[in-house]
Write a structure and sequence with these properties.
Elements: E1 2-4, H1 11-18, E2 24-26, H2 28-47, H3 71-82, E3 86-89, H4 92-106, H5 115-126, E4 129-131, E5 134-136, H6 145-155, E6 160-163, E7 166-169, H7 170-177, H8 188-193, H9 197-227, H10 237-243, H11 246-258, H12 277-280, H13 282-303, E8 312-314, E9 319-321, H14 329-357, H15 379-395, H16 417-449, H17 456-468, H18 478-489
Parallel strand pairs: 1-2
Antiparallel strand pairs: 3-5, 4-6, 6-7, 8-9
Helix pairs in contact: 3-6, 4-5, 4-9, 9-11, 9-13, 9-14, 9-16, 11-13, 13-14, 14-15, 14-16, 15-16, 16-18
Length: 505
């Protein structure tokens, strides 16, 4: 069980909750803060004070005072009117992450919601019932208003949910669970939708997927290095220590360890003096992407524990301040950085695919074909990889450099962070397929070399890979192979960890 308190949620814990179905609980001290914050809101309402988000309109309507008898209706109108997301739905795991993160933010005790609201969010996570949320429509400032409004709809019994493997009307799922719909009170609608939880939830999934992908890329590139009889000297620890980047040194060590007992690996001067950059510079390129991931992780873990709604309530209600913590710029920049980092993993992978299939660049059968000329072999797989990396280049254009005014120019600078997070996810999906193509080609090349000559680690990966994708003995529909292997790679069905030990070159 993981206890949430609004302050120290980690990506490791998020992975356990989202994928491992870890049960969550609410920290009792955090619930005390929630109650104090709620008492402050109720005091403001009863005293007739005018405070943004409690008894005023929103955005450009912030100067409109709402009658006391309409305060509850204000919240319902807010979420209904703002629930106008469009496009494909976020994956269910992203919706689950969104609920966890919204709950964690409310537990900081600055938002003014009732305990029943946070308890309902907790129950949704533990019962695996998640809102159906369209992925398009957020500007990433005033928070993720449209996506989070679809989340808030579920609390009042409207909208749709993912439940027991199906999309169902919320009321249908509530009946099965014995839930009553909530009636949102003053401040609660705004507290639920004013935040960065859509981009951050998508960012969490992106980070988890990207972290696994860079580990896999070290393994698959090591397989390619062996199948092309690459030169291990370029991975000598002294070279990487001389530059000083820890991540670069780590990648070089991983490759040395994976290939340590290979009979295919060569030394400089044996077959050639130098390898092409796509082989020789694996530590430098993969290492740089790992540096980017470290930056992204730092920003995500701050944002996962941040109060991002507006206004925020401090000092037991004595201080209620309107600010801009809902602005997604920190995550927008992090997602744009992640896009570039993962796109480069795919770029260099595609170049290694070219070296595997191009008979002018190796001594293997052309395009790894079982019968060159009559059969095309892996020829068009390289086309697909090239297409995917080119698509990634367009997706990698930074979303955060764009802005457009909204709400009658009251909200005149926005982050586009959710767009950046969505595009990062697509880049990761594309990159996974490119790495899958590289692995298919590397396995085929290893068969020509003699799999018994490969390192014991690569033989283990090869054996697992061949359970998923058979040898190319005749041309077939390779689309299925690419998709199947990509799905296998995305399911953590291999131990990608490396037993740390430095191997002298």
């Amino acid at each position: 069980m993981i206890q949430l308190n609004g302050s120290d949620l980690t990506l490791k814990q998020m992975k356990s909750i989202i994928y491992g179905k870890e049960i969550i609980a609410i920290n009792p001290e955090s619930m005390k803060k929630v109650r104090k914050s709620r008492a402050a809101v109720e005091r403001i309402v009863s005293n007739g004070e005018t405070v943004y988000g409690i008894n005023t309109g929103f955005g450009k309507f912030s100067d409109v005072r709402i009658k006391d008898e309409d305060v509850d209706n204000l919240q319902l109108h807010l979420i209904r009117s703002h629930a106008c997301g469009v496009g494909e739905n976020f994956p269910a795991v992203v919706s689950k992450a969104m609920v966890v993160l919204r709950l964690n933010a409310l537990l900081k005790g600055f938002s003014g919601v009732r305990p029943c609201v946070v308890e309902r969010l907790r129950d949704m996570v533990n019962e695996n019932i998640f809102p159906v949320i369209p992925s398009q429509g957020s500007l990433g400032a005033s928070g993720d208003l449209a996506p989070l409004s679809h989340l808030a709809l579920v609390l009042v019994g409207e909208g749709e949910v993912h439940y027991r493997g199906k999309i169902r009307p919320t009321q249908e799922a509530y009946q099965k669970l014995g839930y009553e719909s909530l009636t949102l009170k003053a401040k609660e609608g705004l507290a639920l939708i004013n935040g960065t939880q859509a981009m951050t939830a998508m960012g969490v999934i992106n980070y988890i997927e990207a972290e696994r992908l860079v580990d896999q890329s070290d393994w698959v590139s090591s397989m390619t290095l062996e199948s092309l009889e690459g030169i291990i000297d370029a991975f000598h620890p002294a070279i990487h220590e001389a530059r000083g980047y820890p991540e670069q040194m780590e990648v070089a060590e991983r490759v040395r360890t994976i290939t340590s007992d290979s009979k295919l690996i060569t030394h400089q001067g044996e077959k050639r003096v130098q390898d092409a950059y796509s082989l020789r510079c694996i530590p430098q390129v993969h290492g740089a992407s790992r540096q980017s991931l470290a930056y992204v992780k730092e920003k995500l873990e701050i944002e996962m524990n941040a109060a991002t709604d507006n206004p925020l309530i401090f000092d037991d209600g004595e201080t209620v301040v309107s600010g801009g913590n809902f602005h997604g710029q920190p995550i927008a920049l992090a997602m744009d950085f992640l896009k570039i980092a993962v796109a480069e993993i795919a770029n260099i992978s595609e170049r290694r695919v070219e070296r595997l299939v191009n008979p002018q660049l190796n001594d293997l059968p052309g395009f790894l074909s079982p019968d060159p000329g009559l059969q095309s072999g892996a020829m068009i797989m390289q086309y697909v990889a090239a297409s995917l990396v080119s698509e990634n280049k367009t997706l990698a254009h930074p979303a955060s450099v764009d802005s457009i005014p909204s709400s009658a120019n009251q909200e005149d600078h926005v982050s586009m962070g959710t767009i950046g997070a969505r595009h990062a996810y697509q880049i990761i999906v594309n990159a996974q397929k490119v790495v899958s193509i590289e692995m298919i080609c590397a396995m085929q090349a290893l068969e020509y070399r003699g799999i018994s000559l490969a390192s014991s680690s690569i033989q283990r990966l090869f054996a697992k890979g061949r359970e998923v994708v058979p040898s190319i003995t005749e041309d077939r529909i390779f689309s299925k192979d690419i998709e199947t292997l990509s799905k296998w790679l995305s399911c953590d069905q291999f131990d990608w960890t490396i037993q740390r030990k430095t191997i002298s070159s």
